[in-house]
Design brief:
2 domains, 36% helix, alpha/beta, homotetramer, nine-stranded mixed β-sheet, five-stranded parallel β-sheet, Rossmann fold
Amino acid sequence: MGMIGGGDNAFIGSIHRMAAALSEKIELCAGVFSQDDEKSSNFGLSLGIESGRCYGSYKEMIVKESKLPKKRRIDFVSIVTPNHLHFEIAEFALSYGFHVFCEKPTSLSLNESLKLQQQLKQTELSFAVAHVYTAYPMVIEARNRLANNEIGKINKVVVDYSQGWLSPEYLDTEQKQASWRMSPERAGLSCCMADIGTHAVNIAEFILQQRVDCVLAELTFSNHRPLDDDGSVLLRFRHGAKGILTASQICVGEENNLTIRVYGDKGSIKWQQQTSGTLLLQQAKGPIQILTNGSDYLCDAALALSRTPPGHPQGFIEAFSNLYLLFYKQIVEGDKVDLLPQIEQGVAGLAFIEAVIESNKTGNRWVTLSA
Amino acid sequence: MGMIGGGDNAFIGSIHRMAAALSEKIELCAGVFSQDDEKSSNFGLSLGIESGRCYGSYKEMIVKESKLPKKRRIDFVSIVTPNHLHFEIAEFALSYGFHVFCEKPTSLSLNESLKLQQQLKQTELSFAVAHVYTAYPMVIEARNRLANNEIGKINKVVVDYSQGWLSPEYLDTEQKQASWRMSPERAGLSCCMADIGTHAVNIAEFILQQRVDCVLAELTFSNHRPLDDDGSVLLRFRHGAKGILTASQICVGEENNLTIRVYGDKGSIKWQQQTSGTLLLQQAKGPIQILTNGSDYLCDAALALSRTPPGHPQGFIEAFSNLYLLFYKQIVEGDKVDLLPQIEQGVAGLAFIEAVIESNKTGNRWVTLSA
Amino acid sequence: MGMIGGGDNAFIGSIHRMAAALSEKIELCAGVFSQDDEKSSNFGLSLGIESGRCYGSYKEMIVKESKLPKKRRIDFVSIVTPNHLHFEIAEFALSYGFHVFCEKPTSLSLNESLKLQQQLKQTELSFAVAHVYTAYPMVIEARNRLANNEIGKINKVVVDYSQGWLSPEYLDTEQKQASWRMSPERAGLSCCMADIGTHAVNIAEFILQQRVDCVLAELTFSNHRPLDDDGSVLLRFRHGAKGILTASQICVGEENNLTIRVYGDKGSIKWQQQTSGTLLLQQAKGPIQILTNGSDYLCDAALALSRTPPGHPQGFIEAFSNLYLLFYKQIVEGDKVDLLPQIEQGVAGLAFIEAVIESNKTGNRWVTLSA
Amino acid sequence: MGMIGGGDNAFIGSIHRMAAALSEKIELCAGVFSQDDEKSSNFGLSLGIESGRCYGSYKEMIVKESKLPKKRRIDFVSIVTPNHLHFEIAEFALSYGFHVFCEKPTSLSLNESLKLQQQLKQTELSFAVAHVYTAYPMVIEARNRLANNEIGKINKVVVDYSQGWLSPEYLDTEQKQASWRMSPERAGLSCCMADIGTHAVNIAEFILQQRVDCVLAELTFSNHRPLDDDGSVLLRFRHGAKGILTASQICVGEENNLTIRVYGDKGSIKWQQQTSGTLLLQQAKGPIQILTNGSDYLCDAALALSRTPPGHPQGFIEAFSNLYLLFYKQIVEGDKVDLLPQIEQGVAGLAFIEAVIESNKTGNRWVTLSA
């Protein structure tokens, strides 16, 4: 793998590297980690990349790697830059025949993601989007329980993703993460909805295996910030279920509190990311059941992605590593791997962002997703 | 006290009686428990009421009790009938000089509650509304922490009240509770929003000491029911905070899951009714704090309403009994007891219901509360 | 009921009064609340007892009440004094034909409790011991699940009762509770083991329906205190299960943390007093189940003692009130009420205390209980 | 690194490999994974090891690797075989100049571990023992809080390690893990106490920075098994604190429930492995505090070993990887790394096992640890 972005101090880049390493299948062989040549090179060397493959720009990396013999060159690029570069890098890498593992959102506009989708149709390349939360085994188990009709026809979904780190009072003055996320040029149309709202809607769509049809949104722009840092969205799913989504980065005290509850006419499920190894399942009138990671009664897919026996906690890096394992499987096998978030999820995310922004701008009206 | 309603099998009537008994201040001396004379009388006798004071109608009770010598007659009536009778009984009781403890909603329409408010202004009588959740000590503590500015300027409120007992598939066919709650004649404009949505908005207003200004609501009427059994509401508070409220009686698997989270710019609080003895408090960048019922560090008001030392759980009946203690205090002392929900809260509840219904009817638009 | 002890500031006396009131069956009609005549009388009046029945000594109360016509006099006495008076008052009250509800331990020595047991055999009077924790509905449910063989042959019991309020550094200098509990004259052979260790062993014996056969104990006497404030005890039950019990009143930070876990060869149960409304049940290889108070699937006995529907928390006072309801039932019906802790449990408690003290004194050896 | 043991289906071998990979510092370059040459080789190849370095015996590996040029050869061996081989392999590897990362217990007898300690004194080689639980950041934080005197003089330690997987009824008939663990030849003097009891005592000694002085133990041998599968141990620490330890592998329903609570005269801490990312801290009379993984307020050592920001859960593999990182640091820097469990902890573990076995054999008497 060749990495683009994720230099010193970048949170998500180091997560991707650990996730890839933990996969025991993927090796970091090349990279460009900074726009500054020397910085990039030094950082790459510190990661154990050979000096000739620490590149100065993504174009250089992609072009040069493409000229290496197939056995030696990277198989795919991992894009962990700020949002505004995702699209152009992905497009470029695909055009040179590399598979792509891309941070979300896959582009700044829906249109661009649709272009990527078109481009992909003309190749046999694989494309993964880093929707890490659906790679937790207990989320896969939740999806499976719904597919097996264990909670019946879905009536209501409540998904809540609360963080506090972007709260103006809370923020360290020079926090790099925060600065690009609040820049329309680099983050795009939205901060909170793009960064975490898309995770929230994606996990709901993943578990339900149902797309959201339309949204009614209200966003908050604290202290006249250019982009939203909080919002609430009413959801209607294509098959009739209703939902309510709230996402925030100004909930002081919250760390990374993503919670989803799905209510059907026969029962319900609840999952909380911060206690990711358990899934609550309740069928009508019976006791609440706590399902745990690694247990024999889980579905095959959830069990296959549990690395440890029950009672040995796993977390975020393991989930991320599961994404890389699924992506690896898809590259090797060629066929679509069902559980891997791909360009369709990238497109869905952008459609959601654009609809939410429009609903908020036009007085909190219902807006149907364009894709 | 004289009770009206709450006969055999009625849930809330028996709670009121236990709460009054636990107060150790209030005695049940009279009552009318059924529209059937004999049933009412038999039930009253089974409660230990003397036969002459088991009445056949509320009018009979109020009129006859009013003629007893002051020392012997009841001091107040407790109204625990279905919703449609609250107003006429309250009005009648007040007109005969009795204090009133009334189940919520205080009437079927806002207009009626405003009338009660007018009527009360012309007397020195006390009037309590059964908003039990604000009588939990840890909710009082939460209000106090906000009043002391411990979490700063409030940005966001998330209040969620989920029950499952009215889910069509879940319901026992002949469940009495359910039948009147789904009858517009007896329940009024709303089922879910009136029954539990008003609790949800009331606890938010109580903790913030801030009224909701306007709402945008979407309601659900499962299986073409005449009244709502679920809904989500965007809130704007008068002083600028935003909120999101969801209430449901069709969340299969949920028992009585009322949760409120309030986020300020300095910290946040969380309270869950099902673990009512703890309050989570988090100030920016410090550890989460778990405050517990009965602890020395609580404010005086919370401590005064904690009956047991820390670690000895309390619950719903104790909270209800706290309402009766506050009401008793107000009757005895005459002055407004700050923490007691009164006609103002009754009016606020009806204003909320009417606004929510209107917003839902008119395409999920923002509607300002009329009172 | 006539109360002995429990004057101003006494924790447990007020709990007994609230529990009796909440029963809606029992009325406090007489009492002696202090050794000081005037204090006793004033306190009694403040509770609404008529002045002629506020007595100056327990003997006066028992003698005078016994001369009242049967309809007017108290049916039973409730003994809530320090430990050293339990036996003499109980013996006296029984000799005058009154039923007795007695705080634990029922006497200072095993011998005295055996005497009470003898005395009771010669009457038809009822005698209850205030082992409140077995009156929680979910503890009754646990007992029922074991009786139904849902967790199989019991191998191991872990019971832990940790409090911190007697920690020397933590204690308010003039705390009345603490002073008598550390006095051998008034508390007896033991502080911690008598006060809470007996609860711990009693709840284990109640759930297992099996007596402890022998113990190996190590006690702690912090700061050269005359009585133990902490201890750990290895248990062997008569039918072979092993157990480990630890009780402490110097665990700074603990409130009233009583926890029991029972492991059988087919499954296990866990209950924590501080979250008393839930019981965890796990059968081999299945998910953990959370059973909740008031749910339809509970056994009849547990359901009969649940006052509220699921999700409406109950606690310590409700459990205590359940004891009074069971006691009331026994008095009225005459037959032994299965779930009510009686003199047998009083005897078992003293046998446990004496065995634990002996084991600790003789170098932590195994000691068989004398009764 | 060269691995010895940990072939197909072995739980702990795969954990070590993932942990090493996640360290991003350590590469698996050689190994012997089975006593069957071909199996070993095939498995090694499947892990990506080059064929020439998939060896048929540990002696072959050590000898041959020692002859490779320093740059190419492995730096250390990781021993993940059944217990009976730990000592001989470790001794052999050290004698050839390799650092050793060894599973616990470090040998079958205390004597052997003392020999290893002697051998190590004569070299500058590093030796790590796989006490993974002390490498969780929140356990390091706990140790730090005690070192800073935040909970005062320690009075009591309660440590409980409960698993259910060895319960006879629960066990899959041909479970490989179980078979060697119950073999005295391969597991040594003890099953449960060696396997998990040593973890329990080690985490207590780590947090307190205090050794256990003597023990009083009772062990269980279900169904006449040759080795213990459950036990309870009273502990006395060298500086006076008392403790109670229970460990079991027959607690049906338990997964990997290691819990430690430490009570001082100023406060207490609690940690549960299954919710490893939080640490509860309570100082006298204040609220309970929940400290979370990755938070700014943690000590430097805890923060350095937190890979993700707060709210992004971590677990068992991360903790294991921390051990490898600490070991790597020690190898590179040469000086003793404070937090790394080393031969001293190996010796302490064996001293504990032998004392516990002796206490149990001799009628549950106090036995002082020999080292």
